[in-house]
Amino acid sequence: MFGRKTPQRLITGIDIGSSAIRIALGQRVEKEDGSFDLHILGLVEVPTEGVTKGNVVNLEETVSSLSHGLEQIERLTGVMVDSAWVAVSGIDIISQKSKGVVAVAKADGEISADDVSRVVEASRTVSVPLNYEILHVIPHSFGVDGQTGIKDPTGMTGIRLEVDVQIIYGVNQQIKHLTKAVYRTGIDIDDLVLSVLAVGDVVTTSRQRDLGVCVVNIGGSTTSLVVYEDGDIIHTAVLPVGSDYITNDLAIGLKVDIDIAEKIKIDYGHCVSKDIPKREKIDLANVGATENEVISHRFVAEIIEARTEEILLKINEELLKIDRSGRLPAGIVFTGGGAKVSGIVELSKEVLSLPASLGYPMYVTGGQGNAHDISFSVALGLVKWGANLHTDTKKTYSRNNGSNKILKGVQDVFKSLMP
Asked: Is the backbone peptide bond immediately before 355 cis, with ω within 30 degrees of 0?
């Protein structure tokens, strides 16, 4: 049923997290109806050294960890990786709205692709915050001579063309350290992509993004979120809390080693304490402790519940900023390794008063069964991002990297604006 294009370009996505580096290598596989799946040839996860809260703090350790991951993916797939799409996920990501205005070039007033490219570029002429650079420029809608809400103005007639965009910035030094770590491994960077933007497109449907949905990616040290409405991104944020904070609380509350606490979280973690019988116990010998010690399973759940609820309340604070608290019909979609803790969906429904679900990567095949692991959502999202761009298909976002280059390609601009 599937017919592949020939040749197929292999695409690599690298998610450099605070606790693990995850690498996905795959390609686009065409379907008869014109849509496509991602066929994943290999997925690799290795521990991270030298990264804190999404930022490189020790270059040598980060290069060593990434090199180890690249060696594994090349050994697994038999393919030499020469370039990759790389996720950016630091806590200092900021965004702001901007507007671009240009005069239509043609004498007859017909709007061309070049006009669209020029107006999007004009929206970038803003005062960039000190020590920041532009990661993405995301057009929301166009206006032609006062008529607003236009998704694609091509071929329309007018004198004045406007665009409303959201610009996302990253810290200069953090981006330089990340790119240097990748280049030191001997591979090129196709581009940098804000991690939550990559993951949002692979774990939600276009209908969810039209209705209104918040995608939450819970990592080790950070939690990032993106809110969609009418198919557009209306808000992004990176919170300085993640699943490692649950592990730390368990280590302190139970007075155990941090590695034992992590094992308890993975094997026995649950977010809703009332679901656990009061008399149920956990023998620490079962999670690697050297001595037999019995603890209350209910107490473990209470610690996890308290910290998870704190994360959820911080998410709600972001929704309140944009007046979307309790007002997203498609609810909350959780993904990332930190979302694996049992009961997070139920607790979220109670705390946020919204529908909630786990966001598994969609339309993905292969990967030895790991392609539907929510831990790999960002890496898989990067592969999809690259597949969209390199095969000249629809992109959900118009994007630029931080080099301030002009948007290239008429079709890339238009297709990035299609719902």
From this structure: no
Q: What is the dihedral of CA 49, 51, 56, 59, to 10 degrees?
A: -10
pLDDT confidence of residue 390: 53
Question: Which architecture does CATH list for 94-170+405-417?
Answer: 2-Layer Sandwich (3.30)
| Mean pLDDT of the region 390-417 | 39
d(CA 46, CA 382): 18
Q: How does strand 147-150 pair with strand 83-88?
A: unpaired
Which tokens hold the place of 235?
Answer: 């808000």
The pTM is what? 0.85
Q: Dump the DSSP string for 190-218.
A: EEEEEHHHHHHHHHS-HHHHHH-EEEEEE
Closest alpha carbon to 140 in 184, 95, 75: 95
Q: Which residues pair with 237 in a beta bridge?
A: 225
pLDDT at 410: 33
The length of the chain in residues reads 419
Portions of the chain given CATH number 3.30.420.40: 205-358
Instruction: Write the DSSP string, 321-332.
Output: HTT-TT--TT-E
Place of tokens 């091509």: 154
How far apart (Å, rounded) are the C-alpha atoms in residues 377 and 382? 9
User: What is the CATH superfamily name and number for domain 205-358?
Assistant: ATPase, nucleotide binding domain (3.30.420.40)
CA-closest candidate to residue 244, choices 63, 17, 91: 17
Model confidence pLDDT, tens digit, residues 170-206:
999 999 999 999 999 999 999 999 999 999 989 999 9
Q: What is the pLDDT of residue 37?
A: 79
CATH 3.30.1490.110 boundaries in the chain: 94-170+405-417
